[in-house]
Every structure is written in structure tokens, then in C-alpha cells.
Predict the 3D structure of the following.
Amino acid sequence: MSYFSSTIGRKQMVGVAGLGLSLFVLVHMAGNMLMFIGAEAYNRYAYALTSSPLIYVAEAGLISIFLLHAVVAIVLTIKNKKARGSNYAVSPKKTSSSFAAKTMWAQGVIIIGFVILHLNTFKYGTHYDVTYDGVMMRDVFRLMVEVFQNPVYTFSYFGVLILLGMHLSHGFASSFQTLGLNGAAYDSKVTMAGHVYALLVTIGFISQPFYIFFIHNA
């Protein structure tokens, strides 16, 4: 049996892809924090990203990693269910019976649906223009304000972010254990790092629609 078709190989692929996505999520959240500086700072940041020819390479790579993580995780889940095993790659011993561990597959399905909706709303949503120093660019800030002033979208966004935080917290520790980067002296530290990372990302993302819905233009 080859590495890529073996259970351990697939688990490690899910783990590596998951860590890659975790890094992207953190960077994406940090970049979006520019909205607190103002519309111009945020729009210039978005323009710098989307106007670079490397954006196509980055998007292709990100989509590939996302699909690898999702598809292989689904295959493992189905295989594990048939074998009456765990619902996710490898669960940390201390959290293997937690709600987060038991519902990783369900969280993943909801997150995939959210990603599709999020892309449709922002990447392919209404295109407003704004000009700074003679350069016309998309006014993403205006679209974001418009979207997050919708209570249905905003509170649904809150809910999905809570699930994302759970998914990231458990997945972070699970990935390290799957890759063999664990041990009695490190398990608790890795688990704590996962909790801190997930909390940081979740609060960071939630603060943005929270600010727009409750404070911006109030």
C-alpha cells in the first residue's frame, strides 16, 4: 500500500493541509483588521492583494489545499465510520470525547457551505468603485458595511465563526499529534496553543462585523 493511499498517509495529508489553512485564516484575519484604521487603508490592502498577478497562483494553491483537506477528511470519516473508529484523523487523547472532536465532520460541512456563501457575497458580490490618488479600485469596505448591517447575515456569521473556532482548536492539536509532533511533555502545551490560536482568530473575525453592526455609523 502506498503512503498516499494508506490511512496514516491520508491522516498526515489532512493534518498538513489543516495547518496550512490555519495559517491562511490567521493571516486573513490580521489583514482584515485594517478595517479599523479606515476605508482607505482597507481598500488599498484589498487592491494590493487582488491586483498582483501572484493572486492567481495563491488562489490556486489555496483551493488545492482546501480541497485536499476536505476531500481526504471526508474519505477518512466514511472509512472510520464503517470501521466504527473516530470521526476525525487523530484526536488528542484528552479531547477525543469532546463535543468538538465528535462533530468535526459536521463542522467541516457547515464551514464549506459558509466559505461558498462568503466568496459569493464578497469576491463575486456587488462591485463599488472608489478612487485614491488617481487610482480606481474596488470599494470593498462599502460592500462589507452593507453586508454586515444585515442582521441575518451578521448573526449567522457569528454562529459559523464559533464553529470555526471549535474546528480550529481541535484540528490544530489533532494535526500535531497526527504528524507525530507530540509527547507527554507537549500534549497539554499543544492543546493550549490550539485553544489560544482559535480564540484569537475567532475574536478577531467576530470583532469586525460586531463593530460594523453595533458601532459603525451608529
Summary: The chain has one domain: 3-214. DSSP finds eight helices and two strands in the chain. Residues 3-214 form a domain with the 3 helical TM bundles of succinate and fumarate reductases fold (CATH 1.20.1300). The longest strand covers residues 129-132.
